[in-house]
Amino acid sequence: MDKLRVGVCLCGSFCTFSSVLPQIEKMCSRFDITPIMSATAFQTDSRFGKAEDFIKQIEDMCGKKVWHTIAEVEPIGPKKLLDVLAVVPATGNTLAKLACGIADGAVTLAVKAHLRNERPVVLAVSTNDALSVAAKNIGTLLNAKHMYFVPFKQDDPLHKPRSAVADMTKLEETIDLAAKGQQIQPILL
After folding, report:
1. pTM for this entry
2. What CATH architecture is 4-179?
């Protein structure tokens, strides 16, 4: 049986990379993973690590080069390259662009190209404004066809009361269900 072809898009919520990368590594044994990074994730060194180190780690895990340009991701739609596309982490900026139909970078165009074929997109929220300005975008995407959410919760209610992050340990199960057209429940933890 062929492995499920899963695109995994990483955006610039660098603080979540430490919980995302082990999940990607775990999924590599079950899925054929194509790594995709936003320009910010691909180019930015942060206090959480150097971009080149993350890129090497991801490429070593997946056995494939990271796609990070519009030209690299554009064929996802016409060639039907993926079965499921996951945006992990899905930042407030990315959620806003997706909710408004903006496809101006590798990740947002990958989503647009993938949705062209009415295939599932999994979103793993990670944003400090999930319960404020980003809430309307999350609501829009919760109501959109072919969008599935990794369950999420407030990550630090006392110090960051508007912030939310997905439970990355539920990523694989969310992908499995999304491939069958089902939303994992509960969405809110």
Report:
1. 0.95
2. 3-Layer(aba) Sandwich (3.40)
